[in-house]
Write a structure and sequence with these properties.
Helices cover 34% and strands 27% of the residues. It is an alpha+beta fold and 361 residues long. The chain has two domains: 26-179; 183-354, Mog1/PsbP, alpha/beta/alpha sandwich (Protein Transport Mog1p, Chain A), CATH 3.40.1000. Strands 7, 8, 9, 10, 11, 12, 13 and 14 form an eight-stranded antiparallel beta sheet that branches. The chain has a five-stranded mixed beta sheet with strand order 2-1-3-5-4. A two-stranded antiparallel sheet has the order 6-15. The radius of gyration is 24 Å and the shape is elongated.
Length: 361
Amino acid sequence: MRWLIVCFVILTAWACTTSEKARIENLPAATGKPGDMILILDSVQWKGELGDELRKIFKAEVPGLPREEPLFNLIYVYPRKGYTLLTQIRNLVFVFTLDQNSSGSKIMKENFTDETLERIRTDSTFFMVTTKDEYSRGQEVLYLFSDSQENLIKKLQQNNRRIQDYFNSVEKKRLQVALEKTTTTRGITEALRKEFDIDIKLPFGFKIADKQEDFVWLRLMDNRVDKNIFISWKPYESEYQLLPDSLIIWRDEIARRYLFDDPDNPESFVKTETSVPFKPLKATQVNFNNQFAMELRWLWKTNNNSMGGPFISYGLVDDKQQRMYYIEGFCFSPGKDQRETIRELEAILWTFKSGVGQSNP
């Protein structure tokens, strides 16, 4: 009898999984550009304090860019019944509070059960839910709610970084999924593995621009943007090497030796741009694939002022090899938005691994 019960549970779970998989496969693919986000909220709240707080979160300035750019392309939509093409956008955010009785708020509440609404009313810790593939494949949906507008604003203020990080992580994972499918750069990946014991996934078009005993430069140039990744390493001696100032000093040493606008012009070397007072260094301690790392976001330029732009980088340590790595992505695309280029370079950097040959027999 117990065996029959176990079989029933397994078959039921399999049927539910299969049914959900079929549902997702029948959905249209999510649309929109990277960084696009639909925000669905009652118009009264959108124009008021709650809307102001949401704009602070999703339209906050991206650190480390030469021009002001928002974290996301925020598109406001008034709640309506029925299906719309806008709900196929890759990122959706629904926001409502129980103390609002306008027509838009009533439409939002109709999508929730009485049990859920009661929990929102009584559980102050319950204010956010995320789901996937709700209206389209590859879609991320965030629900933000509370018993009152005042309490939701407090929750947003306390969790603004968490909400930003959630969607930043979503966009990064989408890019990394595409990187895993890339086959055209596997030759470069295998060469780096064999020669330097490092691994990094690269999109189509990247080539090795230079390599030295402690450095490799990967580059993609087209008529729109010049994208660059470089990796350098040295013996690990002290945790002080991971301090932001130490990393910037090392960065400039690497760049002066190896990175040039024109290799025939020794004065065209790359350096950190430190002279813009309203664009400070953004340094953050991060968990980089389960190891400590220091993330830097700032600006670079060539010594002769012929080029410049933003960069993102990480300093991290391979404990087994007692080796320290500095990995960076920087770009040159004057007059163009650079948020998504830096986001792509960030996704590439997060595929980096060292000591990849150590596990091989």
